[in-house]
C-alpha cells in the first residue's frame, strides 16, 4: 500500500524501483519546505484528492460528527508531539513556536481553544463530551496515534515537527500556487444557513490559524535542516502522512457509523 501511494501503482523491476525511490527523495534543487508542500498537495488536495476532502466539499452533518469524534484523539496526541519537540531542542524560537501552538490548541490565547470549539461542535450535534472521552478511537485512528507517539519518542525534534506540522497543510487555504485543486472545505459553508454556528466557528478558527501554523513550522524546519539528515526528515514526513491518510478515512468511517446509528 505504501508503494502504491508513494511510488507507483504499476509493477516495476528492481532498477525501475531504485530510480523511482531516488526521484521520491530528490529535492529538485529546492529546500525541504517545498518538497513537503509539493508532496502533500499532490497526495491530498491535487487532481486525485483524499476522499475526506471530497466529502468536505458539501456540508454533511454525519461527516462533521465523525470528524469531531476522531479528531479529539488526534488533538490529544498533537500536544504530546509538540511537547516532545520542546523537550528535545534548546532553540528558543522552536520552543516558543510549539508552546504558542499548544496554548492555541488547548487554552485559546484569550479566545476559545481549538479543542473547545471541537467539543462545542460535537455538543451541537448532540454528542456529549463525556461520550467522546469514553469512546475508543477507531482502528485507523489508533494506529496513527501509535505511530505519531513512536515518532515523538524516538525521532529528532526537527523530524517530529516535519511529521506533525506538515499535516496542518490539509487546511491551508494558500496552496493553489503549489497545485491544490480543492479547498479543505467548501467556503460556502460560512453563508449556508443549514450549517450550525458551532460548525462555522470550528471551521473558521482552523481556516485562520492553519495557514500560519503550517508554513511557520516549515520555515523553522527549512532554517535548521542543513544541520540534520534530510532523508531522516523526509522519512518522518512519509511515515506520518501514510497514517494520516488512513486517519482521515476513520473520520468518514465514524460518520457512517453515526448515520447508521452504530455509535
TrEMBL record:
Residues 47-250 form the Thiaminase-2/PQQC domain. InterPro entries: Haem_Oase-like_multi-hlx (IPR016084), PqqC-like (IPR039068), Thiaminase-2/PQQC (IPR004305). The lineage of its organism: Archaea, Methanobacteriati, Thermoplasmatota, Thermoplasmata, Thermoplasmatales. Pfam families: TENA_THI-4 (PF03070). GO terms for molecular function: oxidoreductase activity. It comes from Ferroplasma acidiphilum. Keywords: Oxidoreductase. This is TenA family transcriptional regulator.
Amino acid at each position: 500500500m505504501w508503494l502504491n501511494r508513494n511510488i507507483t501503482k504499476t509493477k516495476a523491476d528492481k532498477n525501475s524501483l531504485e530510480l523511482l525511490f531516488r526521484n521520491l527523495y530528490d529535492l529538485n534543487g529546492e529546500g525541504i519546505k517545498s518538497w513537503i508542500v509539493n508532496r502533500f498537495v499532490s497526495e491530498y488536495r491535487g487532481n486525485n484528492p483524499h476522499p475526506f476532502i471530497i466529502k468536505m466539499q458539501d456540508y454533511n452533518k454525519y461527516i462533521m460528527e465523525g470528524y469531531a469524534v476522531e479528531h479529539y484523539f488526534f488533538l490529544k496526541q498533537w500536544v504530546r508531539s509538540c511537547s516532545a519537540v520542546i523537550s528535545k531542542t534548546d532553540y528558543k524560537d522552536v520552543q516558543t513556536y510549539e508552546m504558542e501552538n499548544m496554548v492555541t490548541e488547548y487554552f485559546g490565547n484569550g479566545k476559545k481553544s481549538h479543542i473547545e470549539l471541537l467539543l462545542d461542535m460535537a455538543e451541537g450535534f448532540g454528542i456529549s463530551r463525556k461520550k467522546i472521552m469514553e469512546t475508543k478511537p477507531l482502528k485507523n485512528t489508533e494506529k496513527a496515534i501509535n505511530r505519531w507517539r513512536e515518532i515523538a519518542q524516538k525521532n529528532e525534534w526537527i523530524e517530529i515537527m516535519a511529521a506533525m506540522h506538515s499535516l496542518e497543510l490539509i487546511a491551508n487555504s494558500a496552496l493553489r500556487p503549489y497545485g491544490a485543486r480543492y479547498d479543505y472545505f467548501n467556503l460556502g459553508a460560512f453563508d449556508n444557513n443549514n450549517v450550525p454556528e458551532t460548525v462555522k466557528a470550528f471551521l473558521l478558527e482552523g481556516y485562520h490559524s492553519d495557514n500560519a501554523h503550517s508554513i511557520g513550522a516549515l520555515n523553522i524546519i527549512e532554517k535548521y535542516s542543513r544541520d540534520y539528515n534530510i532523508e531522516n526528515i523526509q522519512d518522518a514526513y512519509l511515515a506520518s502522512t501514510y497514517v494520516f491518510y488512513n486517519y482521515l478515512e476513520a473520520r468518514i468511517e465514524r460518520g457512517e457509523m453515526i448515520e447508521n446509528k452504530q455509535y
